[in-house]
Amino acid sequence: MANIENGRQSADTRSIRTISSSHMDDESSLGSDSEINGFTSDRQTDKYGFIGGAQQCSEGQTREVPPEVLRQREVKWLEMLGQWDKWMIKRFNKVRLRCQKGIPPALRGRAWLYLSGGKMKKEQNNGKFQELDSQPGDPKWVDVIEKDLHRQFPFHEMFVSRGGHGQQDLFRVLKAYTLYRPEEGYCQAQAPIAAVLLMHMPAEDAFWGLVQICEKYLPGYYSPGLEAIQLDGEILYALLRRVSPLAYRHLEKHKIDPILYMTEWFMCAFSRTLPWASVLRVWDMFLCDGVKIILRVGLVLLKCMLGTREKLKACQGQYETMELLRALEPRYMQEGFLVREIIEVPVTARDVEREHHTQLKRWRKNRGELNFKPPPRMHGARLIMLAEPPRRQDLQQNPTIVLEVPQPTPKLKKGKEEKKSQKKRSIKKSQPIEEIPNPYSLPNDPPPPPSTPPAPPPIRRGTLETVPETETEVLHQQPPTDLPPAKESPLQRSTQSLSSTDQDTYL
Fold first, then answer.
1. Cβ atoms within 10 A of the Cβ of 451, count?
2. CA dist., res. 329 & res. 344, Å (int)
3. What's the whole-model pTM score?
4. Ramachandran quadrant class, 300 (left: phi over 0; alpha: psi -120 to 50; beta: rest)
5. How far apart are CA 444 and CA 447, in angstroms?
6. Per-residue pLDDT tens over the stretch 395-404
């Protein structure tokens, strides 16, 4: 039986496979963060960020969604995220269907946070992660976590560089969890869970996503003794009897305990087993519907690998059977095939709960009470939301990039200001226009009314002519007699005095 106890693993255990440290040191020392964590000219990355390894995706290996379909799905998901509580309560079947079709990559991280309840948990515990992150942590767990960092997805661009930003964030998330749940501490299988989350969201969001997975979806999986994972192994074994009797009888005949082959599958949520495109689709459904998806994936793989007599001819003993389950055929893990088979498996949350009670009674009869009693398991996003109803402000989407836009003045104030300006205009219009005497009056013009003499206009530099000092001088000046009679000048209504250069044009 696999022995994984809070970061410690026996040398002969192969349930959680690791890569030798010497090979990892070579890989993790490539490049720097500024060069995208280890890229060289001869390395190519796939669309998921892998630069090598078994989970790297080659061209044509995954099912491509047409761009126009992807845009439509993004619009639908944005609409759902904008009214998340209403969709989860009234139209959850539609949410489940869209998760089965696959969440758009651009919105996957945000959708996972909403599905898991991590968004609400984060808003209700504002500043908690920063508080945990600032603490030094328990040296016992810090040492174990640091040793495990370079083992998590060593061929992914985010984690390929030792000490890079990916490994730093992974350390922060795992250390914060040991402080958040000191009674549980750290388990080696938590690292790949946190790493998958970090590929899609910031460190704080990944922390709360990890909290929800450990407490709501897979409670007790990472606790000392691993009793919860053993219970779920028995549940898987019992459900296999109904789904594939042939595979069940074969495993029973050779006395192959479920914990031998399903530990890595379940504890890492298949993140280290399946091709990456299939991992993402499985997680989309898992965070929507809960642990029954993990059980269904396990049932599909066991049925495909051991469900026919031809398959069983090749594995006549325990060793051959274990080798077959460690080397799963790629066609059974292909995204389209696997998702179809998962949806068709007739296992519901009620079946899982019924079998859980049965296995728990058997456990107590044979082994006594559980040493660690985990919180009750929540079967999916809807039950998580109903158990802890969120506040309206907890569901508000907080954009990563905020643009400062000047806020318009309220309409009421604007209307008052407009009324005031209209009144001022009307007052100005109603005032009579003052008649200013023409300085170049004609003989037949009527004499101007007596008024105060205007201020003398200034003398322009560069001209020899000066403006008359008083109005009487202007009136006594006679225009030239040889000029034709001038029409009424628009200057009669002008409110400004003329400069000397303007006067020149009339002389």
1. 11
2. 20
3. 0.72
4. alpha
5. 9
6. 766 655 556 6
